[in-house]
Structure formats: structure tokens, C-alpha cells
């Protein structure tokens, strides 16, 4: 390792370790604050609390490590640039890539180590932390109760609409288990409830007010029609819940181990195969069940058996049905029975399908979460590398070290990266977004930013090239600068005077641009380039070819703009008509919109082809392919910039063609 690489790596490691320790401490405090409710007031041993924090530490790495790499890179390389150390390196022929090369090897090793950590340590930590939280929650069941669902507490299932604090409940519904631990023969409904407990007591009191007590009298189902239940009303009712079994909690119990975030890549791969096979099996069984409910198979078997016996009857029946409905063969009572039976069968099948649809949706959500978890482990290591190539050149560009500005920039970039990842993964888990793309989405967003910053830092350019944006805007909106030259005086010149300006611009005290403006005035008066050439102006014939290419581009652009506007307007009208329940107009709008947009793509490709041919002809670099790609959906925004650049380069080509 050379002295320069050792110096850069040492500087980076000092900053990296310091930032990592500070951030991990901040996130630990945030974790304790987030879960303080689960830890406080439960008389937990200090070892259990330490285990809780220890198990949560690895789960913080996906947040802390990318932010640490980003912030450290900005700080270190910003400090190098601020102290002119990069300038000293460049003066000796050392480029930014050379300065980053040794550190890049360290980041690649760190990225691979992060992947191993995410694949092995984080699932282990998730497994232990989840089971520990589950065991801690059992120590005080009142704090475990959730609103709007039945919560099992001993022999009771408790449901309530709202919990105003840890003890007061509203709209309480209770089911009490029978002696066999399965029969729910007793129900209690009350408007309010309140838990009263003591940490030293094994009894939890539940005081219910203003409610009713329902108890099934009949044991056998056949007797419940005669004696359904007994009812009693109470103002206050106290229930003592024995917590002996619940409080006898083993903190080392680790029975739950099948959650997707507790598995490594091999476990997730097996789980996804099992879920896929299970889903296919359930769909096949469901298909067979619906087929059996339709009785089609039974009818086909009966028809096969009795085919020979009823052939003549069937022929007669078919002849009678040629001009009549099948219901006409039955009397009114039979018709009602047939229709009611068919309706009940259809409604029952629809309910089964709706229920199964919800079940399949939940199964798909679980499957997608496994896919997201699988690819997040792979993406984390790549994210560390990409964020380094975002932070290092960014620090060299802003030329500012320390904590202030680098901290602000790093936090903004990281929040952008983090929230993009959260939105993408949530859309994949609960929506239709591709789960594989969602796991990589934030990393893919940062990749072009890293490439852009590295390119600009290597070329020793500023962070943003403002002139490349403002100059086309000024020309689009025809905004003149204070020191700009006004060429309107050429309009008063006669043709011979304009020819003289073109040929003798230096003697007359004009600049080169005046020659081009004079040619434009002559063209505005109806003269072609050939006619201007005949007046004594020496223009290279290659300029005629350039004008033809630009003319073809302009013609195609007119069609492109028209078709784009028509296609977009019709697409908007499609949504308007559809929302206003006008299906015929909506259908016509979307069809015409598709045709217009297809033709728009054809003409867009033709205009782009002419654009490339023009730039190849004048030996200049064509517009960025990214700008042309963005121009497909955002044509009305990119077209003015391309048009301004085209005119500017045509002007330069004209000046170069003048002899």
C-alpha cells in the first residue's frame, strides 16, 4: 500500500468510526425511547434489558451504515478539497479516481461484509428480539391488548373499540371459554371497562359497567331453538383473571421462528418455494371445489349413462326448445324453485369467491414480503458502495469539511434514499409494485447521481452547470442581457448593403454574428442560399445540406407536436369520460389516443434520426440520449431546449461555411 492510499484510508477510518459510534448511540437512544412502554414498569432484570438492546443493535445497521458511509465520504473528501490537498494531488498528476481507488477497495470489502451481516446476523437478531418482546409482553397482558380485535387473556377473549389509556376500555365484548377450553358459551357486553392490577398480585381485576350477561342454557345444539340463552343486566360486574400461568414466562423461549425477516437467503428461498407450491395447491383445490359445486360433472356422467335410453326424448326436447325458453317446460311453482335455487347457488359461490379472494390477497402479501426481504439483503451491500460514490465526489465538489454543511447534505440525501426505499417496499408489499424492483429502487435512483457527481468531480467542474440551463431559457423566452447586441438595424439595409456587411464585416466594424443575422434578414426577404451565393457571398455547399436536415427535422417536429397534444388530450378525456360513466366516449377516446401516441412515437423517432444525421454532418456531439429519452413522455418540456441548441449549432455551421 502506497503512502497516499494509507493516508486517505487512515483519515477515512478515523472519521468513519467516529461517525458510526455517534450515529449508533443516537439510534440506540431512539430505540429505547420507541420501546420504553414495553420495558417500563415490568420489573425486568438488567440482563433482560441489556439483551433487548443487544438484539436490536444489528437491526440498526441498515440505517446507520449507509448514512455513516455517505457522511464520512462527504466530510473526508470535502476536507481534502477545502485544505487544497486535492489541488496538490492534481499538481503531481494524481486524479480523483486514483485518490479514490485505494478507498474503493475498502468500500467493496465493506459492502460484501455488510451483505454477510445482513444475511446471517440480522435474521438472528430479529429472531431473538421478536421472541424476547413477545415474552416481555406477556408479563402485563393489559398493555398487550389491541383495539378492534379479540385479545386472548387466560380463559377470556376480550374485544373493545377504544382504549383511552392503559386501563380504561370502551364498548367491551367478552367471550368466556367453557370447561373444555373450546366452547364459548358465555358472552358479556358492556359499555365501559377498567383494569385494576398490582405488580405483586397474580390477579388482574376487570371492572365492567353498564352491560349485559348472556349465557347459553342448552348444551345440545338441537335444544337451543327452545332455550336459546339467558340474559341478565348489571351496572357493575367484576371479573378476576388469574395471571399465574401468564406471568410464569420463560424469557429464553424462542418458539417463533418462521417470520420472513428471521430467515437468511436459503431460508427465504425455501419459504418462497413452499408458499408458491401452497398457493398453487390451494388454487387447484378451490377450482375443483367450484367445479363440484356446479354439478357439471354429475350431469355429464348421468347423461353418458342414459344417453342411449333418452336419445329420442332429447331430440324431441331439443325440437320443442327451438322457439321457447327452458323454463316454459315447467309450471309456475317449479319455475320459482329453479330460479331461487340458481340464485342461491350463484350468491353462495360469489361469497366463497370473495372470501377466497381476500385470502389469496393476504397470501400474496406474505409472498411479496419474502421477496422484498430476500432482495433487501442483496441490495444493502450495493447501496453502501453506491453511496460512497455519491458522497466522495460530492465532498470534493462542495469543498467543505467538518460537521456543518456535510451533515445537512448527507441527511437530506439519506432521507431521500431512505424514504424512496420505504415508499417502494410498502407499495410492493401492499400494492402492485414489483417487489424485486422495489428492493433495488432507492439504490437505482442513487446510481445515476453517483455517476453524474463522479464525472463532474473528475472533470473539476462545479456541482451544477447553471449556464447550460439558463442560456436556453433566455433564448426560448427571448430574454436579452444588458450587454447584448441589437441587430434590428440590419432590417433598414438594402440587399447590396447586407451583402457588403457579410463580406466586409471586419472593415465595417461588425462581429461574426452580424454576418449570420444579415443572412437571416436576406432569407426573410425570400432569397435562398443559392441566390445569396449568386450575389457574391461565398458559402460552402455543405451548408445547403445542413439546412435541409434542419428543415426535415422542423417538418417532423410539427407533426410530432400535433400528435403529442392530441394523444395527451384524448388520454385525459378518457379518464374524464370513464369517471363520469360514459363508456362509449371513453372507449373512443382511449382508442384514438393510442393511435395518436403511436404515430407520435413514429414521427419522434424520425425527427430524432434527422437530428443525429445533422450533428454527424457538422461533426458535433448530438444531444444527450438521456434528454431524448426523457423527451418521449415529456416532449413539450425537452423540445424547446433541443430547438434552441439546434438553431445555435446551425448558426455556428453557417459561420464556419462562410469564406
What pattern of helices and strands is seen along the backbone? HHHHHHHEEEEEEEHHHHHHHHHHHHHHH
Number of helices: 22
Q: Which ranges are low-confidence, i.e. pLDDT below 50, for 5 or more consecutive residues?
A: 246-257, 296-310
Overall geometry: flat
Distance between the termini: 59 Å
Report the β-strand fraction as a percent range.
5-15%
Mean pLDDT: 78
Structural class: alpha+beta
For the CA atoms, what is the radius of gyration?
Answer: 39 Å
Q: Major β-sheet, in short?
A: 7 strands, antiparallel
Helix proportion range: 55-70%
Total number of strands = 7
Question: Can you give a write-up of this model?
Answer:
With 659 residues, the protein is an alpha+beta fold. Helices cover 66% and strands 9% of the residues. The protein has helices at 3-34, 36-39, 46-56, 61-82, 85-91, 96-137, 141-144, 244-247, 265-293, 296-305, 311-320, 332-398, 404-430, 435-458, 467-476, 495-503, 512-524, 529-534, 542-579, 583-617, 625-630, 635-657; strands spanning 151-153, 156-159, 162-163, 168-177, 184-197, 203-215, 230-242. Strands 1, 2, 3, 4, 5, 6 and 7 form a 7-stranded antiparallel beta sheet that branches. Residues 246-257 and 296-310 have low confidence and may be disordered.
Question: TL;DR?
Answer:
By secondary structure, this protein is of the alpha+beta class. It contains 22 helices and 7 strands.
Amino acid at each position: 500500500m502506497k503512502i497516499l492510499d494509507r493516508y486517505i484510508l487512515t483519515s477515512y477510518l478515523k472519521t468513519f468510526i467516529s461517525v458510526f459510534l455517534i450515529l449508533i448511540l443516537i439510534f440506540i437512544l431512539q430505540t429505547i425511547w420507541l420501546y420504553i412502554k414495553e420495558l417500563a414498569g415490568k420489573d425486568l432484570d438488567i440482563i433482560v434489558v441489556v439483551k433487548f438492546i443487544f438484539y436490536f443493535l444489528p437491526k440498526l445497521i441498515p440505517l446507520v451504515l449507509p448514512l455513516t458511509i455517505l457522511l464520512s465520504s462527504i466530510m473526508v473528501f470535502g476536507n481534502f478539497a477545502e485544505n487544497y490537498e486535492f489541488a496538490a494531488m492534481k499538481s503531481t498528476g494524481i486524479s480523483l479516481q486514483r485518490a479514490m481507488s485505494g478507498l474503493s477497495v475498502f468500500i467493496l470489502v465493506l459492502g460484501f461484509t455488510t451483505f454477510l451481516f445482513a444475511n446471517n446476523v440480522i435474521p438472528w437478531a430479529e429472531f431473538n428480539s421478536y421472541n424476547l418482546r413477545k415474552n416481555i409482553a406477556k408479563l402485563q397482558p393489559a398493555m398487550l391488548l389491541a383495539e378492534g380485535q379479540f385479545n386472548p387473556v387466560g380463559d377470556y377473549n376480550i374485544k373493545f373499540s377504544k382504549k383511552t389509556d392503559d386501563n380504561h376500555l370502551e364498548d367491551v365484548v367478552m367471550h368466556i371459554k367453557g370447561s373444555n377450553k373450546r366452547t364459548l358459551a358465555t358472552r358479556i357486553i358492556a359499555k365501559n371497562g377498567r383494569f385494576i392490577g398490582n405488580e405483586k398480585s397474580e390477579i388482574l381485576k376487570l371492572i365492567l359497567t353498564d352491560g349485559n350477561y348472556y349465557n347459553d342454557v342448552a348444551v345440545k345444539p338441537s335444544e337451543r331453538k327452545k332455550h336459546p340463552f339467558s340474559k341478565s343486566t348489571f351496572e357493575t360486574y367484576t371479573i378476576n383473571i388469574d395471571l399465574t400461568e401468564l406471568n410464569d414466562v420463560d424469557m429464553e423461549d424462542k418458539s417463533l421462528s418462521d417470520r420472513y425477516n428471521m430467515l437468511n437467503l436459503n431460508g427465504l428461498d425455501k419459504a418462497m418455494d413452499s408458499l408458491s407450491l401452497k398457493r398453487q395447491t390451494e388454487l387447484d383445490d378451490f377450482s375443483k371445489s367450484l367445479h363440484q359445486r356446479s354439478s357439471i360433472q354429475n350431469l355429464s356422467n348421468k347423461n353418458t349413462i342414459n344417453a342411449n335410453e333418452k336419445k329420442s326424448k332429447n331430440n324431441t326436447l331439443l325440437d320443442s326448445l327451438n322457439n321457447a325458453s327452458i323454463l316454459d317446460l315447467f309450471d309456475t311453482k317449479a319455475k320459482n324453485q329453479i330460479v331461487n335455487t340458481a340464485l342461491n347457488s350463484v350468491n353462495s359461490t360469489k361469497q366463497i369467491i370473495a372470501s377466497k379472494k381476500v385470502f389469496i390477497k393476504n397470501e400474496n402479501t406474505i409472498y411479496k414480503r419474502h421477496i422484498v426481504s430476500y432482495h433487501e439483503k442483496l441490495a444493502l451491500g450495493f447501496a453502501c458502495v453506491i453511496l460512497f460514490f455519491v458522497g466522495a465526489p460530492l465532498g470534493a465538489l462542495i469543498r467543505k469539511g467538518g460537521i456543518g454543511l456535510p451533515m445537512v447534505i448527507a441527511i437530506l440525501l439519506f432521507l431521500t434514499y431512505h424514504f424512496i426505499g420505504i415508499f417502494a417496499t410498502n407499495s410492493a408489499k401492499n400494492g402492485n409494485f414489483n417487489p424485486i424492483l422495489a428492493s433495488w429502487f432507492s439504490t437505482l435512483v442513487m446510481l445515476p447521481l453517483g455517476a453524474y457527481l463522479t464525472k463532474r468531480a473528475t472533470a473539476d467542474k462545479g456541482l451544477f452547470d447553471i449556464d447550460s440551463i439558463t442560456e436556453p431559457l433566455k433564448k426560448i423566452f427571448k430574454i436579452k442581457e444588458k450587454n447584448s447586441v441589437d441587430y434590428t438595424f440590419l432590417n433598414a439595409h438594402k440587399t447590396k448593403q447586407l451583402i457588403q456587411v457579410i463580406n466586409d464585416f471586419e472593415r465595417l466594424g461588425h462581429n461574426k454574428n452580424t454576418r449570420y443575422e444579415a443572412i437571416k434578414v436576406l432569407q426573410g426577404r425570400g432569397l435562398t442560399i443559392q441566390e445569396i451565393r449568386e450575389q457574391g457571398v461565398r458559402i460552402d455547399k455543405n451548408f445547403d445540406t445542413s439546412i435541409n436536415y434542419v428543415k426535415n427535422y422542423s417538418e417532423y417536429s410539427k407533426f410530432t407536436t400535433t400528435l403529442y397534444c392530441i394523444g395527451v388530450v384524448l388520454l385525459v378525456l378518457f379518464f374524464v369520460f370513464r369517471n363520469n360513466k360514459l363508456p362509449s366516449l371513453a372507449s373512443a377516446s382511449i382508442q384514438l389516443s393510442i393511435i395518436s401516441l403511436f404515430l407520435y412515437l413514429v414521427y419522434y423517432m424520425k425527427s430524432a434520426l434527422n437530428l443525429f444525421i445533422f450533428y454527424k454532418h457538422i461533426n458535433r456531439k448530438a444531444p444527450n440520449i438521456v434528454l431524448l429519452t426523457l423527451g418521449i413522455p415529456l416532449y413539450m418540456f425537452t423540445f424547446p431546449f433541443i430547438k434552441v441548441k439546434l438553431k445555435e449549432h446551425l448558426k455556428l455551421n453557417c459561420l464556419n461555411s462562410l469564406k
